[in-house]
Amino acid sequence: MDRESKQQRVKRLERLCHERGLPVTMQRRTVFEMILDREDHPTADQIYDQARKRIHTISRTTVYRILDTLVGLTLITKICHPGSAARFDPRTHQHDHLVCLHCETILDLKETRSSKVAWPDVSSYGFVIHDHHIHFRGLCANCIEKRGAEERTTQRPGGRHPRTPARATTRPIAKQKRRIPS
Ligand SMILES: [Zn+2]
Ligand SMILES: [Zn+2]
């Protein structure tokens, strides 16, 4: 599904809007194209900041509403993880994420082995599972490098040793201490 070109995906937006009687506004199309062009997983505010450079009159509320519509049309997905603003992802196929607990970067995990999780039988809950997402949380290569540099300059005794990038990016890591802004 995500192997479609950008043009095909914009066509899909138009088709889905027509099917539901929604107008294909320039604002909807622009916001969707902007998300397709991004490699990261932006927040609604980041998308709004980018959108108003292209469309000066667009409001934050409009951008939020467009994002909800795009999610409802299954053209993008909304990723939520505790303690962070919701992020938006144009890659709607099943994939897992690497989440940096320090800078909140979200990376798409290319390898698919982790996605092959057997869904539990939840019929007794009266629940129907639609999908699942796995977030492997840890530190990104940049943050590990920065932390290593800081530790080398301050030479704090007993400082935590940074993990190697290979381990940090492939294993879920237990909750790490975060500096809470006061
Ligand atoms: Zn990071
Ligand atoms: Zn993703």
Describe this structure in words.
With 182 residues, the protein is an alpha+beta fold. It has two domains: 91 residues, Orthogonal Bundle (Arc Repressor Mutant, subunit A); 63 residues, Dna Ligase, domain 1 (2-Layer Sandwich), CATH 3.30.1490. The strands form two sheets. It has a three-stranded mixed sheet. The chain has a two-stranded antiparallel ribbon with strand order 1-2. The longest helix has 14 residues. It is globular and about 60 Å long. The relative contact order is 0.11. The structure holds zinc ion (2 copies). The site of one zinc ion (ZN) has 6 residues, from loops.
Q: Ions, cofactors, ligands: which are bound?
A: zinc ion
The tally of domains stands at 2
What do we call the CATH topology of the largest domain? Arc Repressor Mutant, subunit A
Question: Could you give me the name of the CATH homologous superfamily of the largest domain?
Answer: Winged helix-like DNA-binding domain superfamily/Winged helix DNA-binding domain
Strand order of the largest sheet: 4-3-5
Share of β-strand residues: 5-15%
The percent range for helix content is: 25-40%
Rg value: 20 Å
Distance between the termini: 44 Å
* Largest sheet geometry: 3 strands, mixed
Name the structural class: alpha+beta
Average pLDDT metric: 84
Q: Compute the number of strand runs.
A: 5
What coarse outline follows from CA principal-axis ratios?
A: globular
Low-confidence stretches: 164-177
